[in-house]
Amino acid sequence: MSAALPASSREWHLVARPHGWPEAEDFALREAAVAAPAEGRILVRNKYFSVDPYMRGRMNDVKSYTPPFKLDHPMDGGAVGEVIASNAEGFAVGDHVLHGLGWREIAHVPAQHAVKVDPDLAPLSAYLGVLGMTGLTAYAGLFEVASFKEGDAVFVSGAAGAVGSQVGQLAKLKGASRVIGSAGSDEKVKLLVEEYGFDAAFNYKNGPVRDQLKEAAPDGIDVYFDNVGGDHLEAAIGALNVHGRATICGMIAQYNATEPTPGPRNMALIIGKRLRLQGMLVGDHADLQPKFVQEVAGWLASGELKYQETVVEGVEKGYDAFVGLLRGENTGKMIVSLV
Predict the structure, then answer these.
(1) DSSP assignment, residue 161?
(2) Are strands 79-86 and 309-313 parallel, antiparallel or unpaired?
(3) DSSP run (H or E) holding 200
(4) How far, in Å, CA of 238 to CA of 118, rounded?
(5) What single-letter DSSP state applies at residue 219?
């Protein structure tokens, strides 16, 4: 089992369902007693946990692809940490694991829902981003859902985020003819071109997305990776070439909307251009995990694939990190550190 366990752990609870933008009073950081792990479970001291855009949808009490957060219960999400007590075969004190019980300091994890990770292969926080769910989202969304092929021109919205920045780099590594990204600041635009190797990028706040995309991709695009929706999706439909493909991964532009948001006004173009727009959930692509880790770990080791993290220190900063993510204050993966 283990040495003496901590008596308590702090954890974030959702206490009210946000209407529009989440407010501080919708959340509470509460103390919970820590018990020894039951049979088949491990106790994990979380070192990092993830905040992600999809979590905003789980704060609404609506039927969706994943159940909503329960009120007055700890929220969950990706986390990585160290086993401090084990009552499960195959896991020992000192092992590092990836699991789904974030938003708390100590997690009581069913062993079948934990995966061992190697801190020597990559920093632990990387397993929440570039080597984790966001990385697999980029990999599967580009190569499987969008059927990317060498020579394609690719446009990525939300391109400085954890998923978008990886999509653009993967496309370049696999022979894209041109990669264009949109982001919300001039600083991020500079990062995309100078650090991540995008061929062109623009700040969507500097003018209509349609006009800036046309200038950046005069010959059109073949693939669109959508993290934003709204005017970006409309602009992409206009720019996509015949038989273009779009992966619809996220629509962060409307996550906090309180009224129904209008769809693209040019959807008739889908017919003549024979476009394919397909939604994606990363959970459908678990079979790609081994190939993804092997290939991406190689690119990380060689320095061909670069990534950034925005790290917020302390469990008490969980709400701030989440709202900062929704406001676009992160570059790359937004992570809360408990180290």
Answers:
(1) B
(2) unpaired
(3) strand 200-203
(4) 44
(5) T
For 119-151, the DSSP string reads TTTS-GGGGGTTTSHHHHHHHHIIIIIS---TT
Q: By C-alpha distance, which of 307, 159, 329 is closest to 227?
A: 159
Angle between helices 133-140 and 162-173 (to 10 degrees): 50
Please indicate, yes or no, whether the overall pTM of this predicted structure exceeds 0.70. yes
pLDDT tens-digit series, residues 107-159: 999 999 999 998 988 899 999 999 999 999 999 999 999 999 999 999 999 99
User: pLDDT-derived band of residue 165, with 50, 70 and 90 as boundaries?
Assistant: very high
How far apart (Å, rounded) are the C-alpha atoms in residues 42 and 114? 9
Q: What percent of the chain has pLDDT over 70?
A: 99
The DSSP output letter for 204 is: G
Residues 6 or more apart whose Cβ sits within 8 Å of residue 29 = 10, 11, 12, 13, 315, 316, 318, 319
Sole residue written with tokens 């003018």 = 207
Mean pLDDT of 216-238: 97
Q: How far apart are CA 167 and CA 226, in angstroms?
A: 11
